[in-house]
């Protein structure tokens, strides 16, 4: 098995070009192999999560971004399925409202950062504030253009305080998006997912790609790297994300804490 973490990472300060990446790529893995490996990874993830929980000194933040129908929900369902729900939090970030609107854009995000011992998944994130906000001009350029540095500072602060961060851009082709929208129209069980807003967003495809590229170029850092996941094939997407989350947890050198009492003399009748 290839080292997908190494193949898919956006090297800090590199010139990320999405058009150089094939969203249907499977990096030499075939489906049967991929499925088998995903199953094994989910088991390993469950073990690593237990260790993280037991250690309770560090946390892992997984950020998921991607165009509509890119597969954020499916990834969460398939990759996190083996985990203990007590140790995981999932936050979906929508259009800010109420108190969110009355604070700076990182306020709601900071509150959702997983506590030590836990894995937190962001379904969309603070990156919306340099994506949808930029594409639709919801804030002037003078405001959003400063956010790349602010986000790097924020993530560095988290990393320095024992929050491990990995970020995934689920990358599908425009044709694949059309296919998935068609399925939402044709399959009764998927009708509820269909939204006219998604069709409208599709018109901004090129602007989103540009915004993604700048985000990747400026915010893939050593402490909080971005990975671009070719996501046309759902099985490969799930496999790649599971490999990288596992690789990250395994690199943390997690250890069970020592027992809090001397266990040697304890006996039961
Ligand atoms: P999803 O598409 O994630 O399943 P929704 O259909 O409710 O869920 O979409 C959430 C919407 O909220 C998206 O269009 C997203 O761009 C928008 N959104 C998220 N964060 C922000 C933000 N900070 N500013 C403006 N819009 C945002």
Low confidence ranges: none
Question: How much of the polypeptide forms β-strand, as a percent range?
Answer: 5-15%
Largest sheet: 5 strands, parallel
N-to-C order of helices and strands: HHEHEHEHHHEHHHEH
- The largest sheet has its strands arranged as 2-3-1-4-5
Shape: globular
Oligomer: single chain
**How many separate helices?**
11
Rg (CA only): 20 Å
Small molecules bound in the structure, each named once: adenosine-5'-diphosphate
Span of the ends, CA to CA: 51 Å
- SS class: alpha/beta
DSSP, total strands: 5
Helical fraction: 40-55%
Mean pLDDT metric: 96
Provide structural commentary.
The protein is α/β, with parallel strands linked by helices and 269 residues long. The chain is built from 11 helices and 5 strands, in the order H-H-E-H-E-H-E-H-H-H-E-H-H-H-E-H. 44% of the residues lie in helices and 12% in strands. Strand 2, helix 4 and strand 3 (119-123) form a beta-alpha-beta unit. Helix 2 (31-55) packs parallel to helix 11. Residues 68, 92-96, 124, 128-129, 132-133, 138, 195 line the site of adenosine-5'-diphosphate.
Question: What labels would you give this structure?
Answer:
269 residues, alpha/beta, five-stranded parallel beta sheet, 5 strands, 44% helix, binds adenosine-5'-diphosphate
Give me the secondary-structure topology.
Layout: H1 4-8, H2 31-55, E1 59-66, H3 72-79, E2 88-92, H4 107-112, E3 119-123, H5 132-135, H6 141-144, H7 147-160, E4 163-171, H8 174-186, H9 196-202, H10 205-219, E5 226-230, H11 234-250
Parallel strand pairs: 1-3, 1-4, 2-3, 4-5
Helix pairs in contact: 2-11, 3-11
Adenosine-5'-diphosphate binds at residues 68, 92-96, 124, 128-129, 132-133, 138, 195.
């Amino acid at each position: 098995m290839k080292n997908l973490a190494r193949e898919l990472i956006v090297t800090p300060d590199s010139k990320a070009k999405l058009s150089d990446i094939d969203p249907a790529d499977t990096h030499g893995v075939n489906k049967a192999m991929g499925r088998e490996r995903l199953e094994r990874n989910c088991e390993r993830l469950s073990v690593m999560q237990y260790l993280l929980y037991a250690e309770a000194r560090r946390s892992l933040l997984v950020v998921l971004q991607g165009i509509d129908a890119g597969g954020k929900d499916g990834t969460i369902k398939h990759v996190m399925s083996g985990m203990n729900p007590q140790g995981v939090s999932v936050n979906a970030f929508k259009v800010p409202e109420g108190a969110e609107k009355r604070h700076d854009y990182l306020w709601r995000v900071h509150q959702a950062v997983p506590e030590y011992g836990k894995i937190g998944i962001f379904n969309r994130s603070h990156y919306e504030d340099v994506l949808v906000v930029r594409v639709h001009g919801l804030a002037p350029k003078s405001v959003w253009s400063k956010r790349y540095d602010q986000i790097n500072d924020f993530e560095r602060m988290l990393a320095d305080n024992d929050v491990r961060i990995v970020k995934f851009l689920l990358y599908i082709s425009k044709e694949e998006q059309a296919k998935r929208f068609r399925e939402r129209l044709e399959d009764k069980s998927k009708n509820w997912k269909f939204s006219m807003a998604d069709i409208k967003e599709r018109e901004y495809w090129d602007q989103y790609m540009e915004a993604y590229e700048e985000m990747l170029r400026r915010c893939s850092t050593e402490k909080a790297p971005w990975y671009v996941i070719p996501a046309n094939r759902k099985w490969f997407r799930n496999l790649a994300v599971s490999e990288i989350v596992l690789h990250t947890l395994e690199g943390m050198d997690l250890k069970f804490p020592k027992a809090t009492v001397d266990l040697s003399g304890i006996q039961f009748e």
